[in-house]
């Protein structure tokens, strides 16, 4: 069994963003030399997500609006978590909707994807350096 | 390490449905000859889900109503994504709630399940052929 | 390839709770002797979750309130599922928001975690014995 590990680093200027990380994951897979197996891609921070959906800017605006409806940032007093001095209570909730991780099949040395699948980093509490982990096992 | 890959195809007549795919996944596992490992089952389309829950028709009606409350199909103008000519903005949101994939343990050649766990394909934008990927690694 | 399997048992007195199970998962990993691979941790019941977030009591109170807003327990007549004689229709919905499982990388014999990642069992229909599965594959 072979295994490979790589960290992807991000420093998003604003509070929230969706970044297509598919090329970075494909590059990690190429580096690994693994052709059959599973690849795990997960946010290493609890106010960010990794998820698979469409690379369409309108959809990303829809997600932003929807997540803000489901778990509004303000008022900060909405979240007991913010009593700790944080202002990111909403980010911990948005992350649960969008998910922590994806697991993708590796077949023939490629990400085994349907026609529109792309991997995104979802930042909900930016303005600082944060990481995504790529771990690949297989042969 | 052994690996196995199979695609399951669906063509749901209406817009939405939940289909129990556990027997198909069990059949793929039997074909693989793998007795210890992990099995990944994921929607290959971004307006569909694979999830594990109860095979109870009342619950599925509850999910349908709840998802329609959280991310209504109409009015289409609710979603910028629909400005691309699509009418499936809601489906991209419903899929995020229900999830893209499940990872299930394989033990003694069986899906290592609790008493009520069943695997479902969740279609949110049907009327055409769509796929689920089953990838198994182990020995 | 090595593999390891362990069940974690819980009997939560009340209806709902979040329990930090990271030490139990770390113990399973140590027992396995696996140093590179993937670890799957999943609820074996369909009214419970396993998820990764922050071990902060205020946040857990926020989650409790938020999940009750998104999928209220009462009135029981809200859910067709409760016509089966159950009163846990809400729990099947809360579990979908928080998720069934996590997959975590194993690197150097440790859970390959960011600074605040902790694994939680989320109980939404307690008062009886329920299980979490830990399955580890690797070498």
Structure summary, number of beta strands of chain A: 8
Strand order of the largest sheet of chain A: 1-8-3-5-6
Which chain pair has the greatest contact? A-B, 33 and 32 residues
Tally of contiguous helical segments of chain A = 3
Structural class of chain A: alpha+beta
Average pLDDT of chain A works out at: 98
Q: Kindly state the percentage of residues in helix of chain A.
A: 25-40%
> Rough shape of chain A?
elongated
Low-confidence stretches of chain A: none
Computed over alpha carbons, the radius of gyration of chain A is: 16 Å
Strand content of chain A: 35-45%
Give me the strand/helix succession of chain A. Answer: EEHEEHHEEEE
How would you summarize what this structure contains?
With 139 residues, chain A is of the alpha+beta class. The first copy, chain A, is 25% helix and 37% strand.
